[in-house]
Amino acid sequence: MRLLVLLLLSLLSIGGLSAQATAGASAKDTSWTIASSFGLDLSGLGIINPKIGGGTGRFGLGGLGSVSANRKTDKAFWNNQFSLQLATQRQGRTSLTQPDGFQKNLDVLRLTSTYGRKISGDKLFLSVDLLAQSQLLKTYKSSYLKPVPAAIDSDYVVSKFLSPALIQLSPGVTYKSNPHLSFQYSPVAIRFIYVSDQAIADQYIHGNEQDKNTFLGLGSELVGRYENKYFKDRFAVNSTLRLFSNYLDRPGSIDVLFVNNFSIQIFKGLSLDLLGEIFYDEDVKMNLDENDNGIYGDPCDRQAQATQLTGAFMLKYSKIF
Asked: For the chain, what percent of residues have pLDDT higher than 70?
């Protein structure tokens, strides 16, 4: 945990010192762009005395919230974003054996921060990138927010806040080929996984090492970023691809995090967004639907390495300050 705090303080110190050094130079050097956005995923269907074959009621609640603070000067840039993706649902019961309560669909708490200082022309920067990720809510093996009574002995906690937590610090070089596309390469990226709850760590499903609640990797990371707007700024694309190889263990296995956001503006501030993510990590296990019954986590299924695909539609309101 001390390493996590030190990494965060190091990056913030770098940006803070740079801001102090340029504060008196000109008004342009101290300008910030601060923006926030919030998307709500709300759905409901209430039925009293449903007809046979007519289905049941349901209620879903979730959303996406993010705050960004970006600074650009003649010699440097510093981009920061904090975001939360959260979605839960509650389905009407049709039998006493069906679980009652809210089931988690999505839970990602993420902080990204990238600082770069110009070293050659307008395209090459000496940079450092920080990725920190965890989740907000406690989750049981059944994906419910509380244990299922029918399987209370086997429905144990598999994740919660800081279990796991991922911190990745990547110093290197950033190349901006144009205002919309950039590539950052780090030959000495540090990846740290921390599982605060020992009972969860003992399951070895989040990438921590045997007999430890941590994982420390040293490797190489390539980050590609693309951001642009089309059709008179009515359609926006924002994509980030992260590729990480661990020198210390199976360097040929590439960890992937591919985050995409496609936004169609309805009117000023309000948009329809499509979110999509691809995630793969050789050390992190996923629930696999072995019998193709559409249920993840039943006794016939297993946990193994696999690619996770995530997609969501959402109405989003954005504001630039």
From this structure: 82
235 inside domain: yes
Q: Whole domain around residue 174: which residue ranges?
A: 2-23+65-91+100-320
- Structural tokens at position 215: 């994982």
Q: Using CB atoms within 10 Å of the CB of residue 116, give its burial: 0 to 12 exposed, 13 to 18 middle, 19+ buried.
A: buried
Q: Which residue has the higher pLDDT, 292 or 12?
A: 292
pLDDT at 22: 42
Residue 55, domain member (yes or no)? no
Q: pTM of the full predicted structure? A: 0.81
Alpha carbon distance 91, 105 (integer Å) = 13
- Sign of the dihedral defined by the CA atoms of residues 290, 100, 105, 60, in that order: positive
Q: How far is CA 237 from CA 185, 264, 272, 307, in A?
A: 22, 9, 12, 23
Cα–Cα dist 41/273, whole Å = 11
